[in-house]
Amino acid sequence: MAANECIFNLVPQELKAIEKSPMYRSKHDPRAPVTNSTLGVKGTTRLHGVGTIVKKNSGTMGRPDRTSAANPNTFLKKKTGPVYEAGGNFMRETSGRKSAVPKKHERPILGQRSAKNFISVNAVEAILKVPGGRKEEDPRYMTKSDFGKKPAYLKQVKEQIQRENELIDQYMENQAGRNRSEAEEELEMMDPHEQEELIIQLKTKWDSVNQSYQKMCHMVTFDTVGKLRRKTELEAELTNLDADIQRLSKGPVYLSK
């Protein structure tokens, strides 16, 4: 039996009528003209629902009823217009004018001669004149007296740096001496015989470790991981023993109490 087959499908079902919603009716008049519309206003044919053009009075050149036409007899006559009072006598500004052209009877004085020697005056002016338009030359530092010498301010800077270093060294020495004195109070010096004995034991251990290391130091490739680890451990142990021997051989050793 298929999945979509069922015995209830044989029972006749009641058909329900589909209710339709009422048709939409606008509350506005569909035959009213469109507001401010100019569609189809030209020509003799008027479409349904289009707007109309309302012509206002004086919308064109003048009123159509000619009620505002001017009377040709009431034109502006002499001395009938508004009266304007003058603001005072007009004065033209003459301060920036050039001098007037001489009249025809104003002749200049001719035949005047000067005793001035223009050649000598020009020569003196040329000699005393300061030359201009010259480009300033770059200063020549090689001709200076202090060229190639150490500047004096460097000596002052070196002395200041030296004084600062001396103050820093003195402060560090005082601080180190204070720390050393405090550390010496809390530390105890190792017995020299015990120190020598410890150095001998470390050297003996270093010989035995070195003997084992010499057996495999020539190996470059290792077939097992254990051999590689053994060689690495021997190298690290030899390095630590060397460091301990050198530390004990430097001088007295202090131990914490």
Describe the structure.
The chain is mainly alpha-helical. Among the domains are: 151-184; 187-256. The chain is built from 4 helices and 2 strands; from the N terminus they run ααβααβ. It has a two-stranded antiparallel ribbon. Helix 3 runs antiparallel to helix 4. The longest helix is centred in the middle third of the chain and has 35 residues, at 152-186. The two termini are 99 Å apart.
Topology diagram in text:
Layout: H1 118-128, H2 152-186, E1 187-189, H3 192-214, H4 225-249, E2 254-256
Helix pairs in contact: 3-4
Protein name: Enkurin domain-containing protein
Keywords: Cell projection, Cytoplasm, Cytoskeleton
Pfam families: Enkurin
Relevant terms:
2 strands; 37% helix; mainly alpha; 257 residues
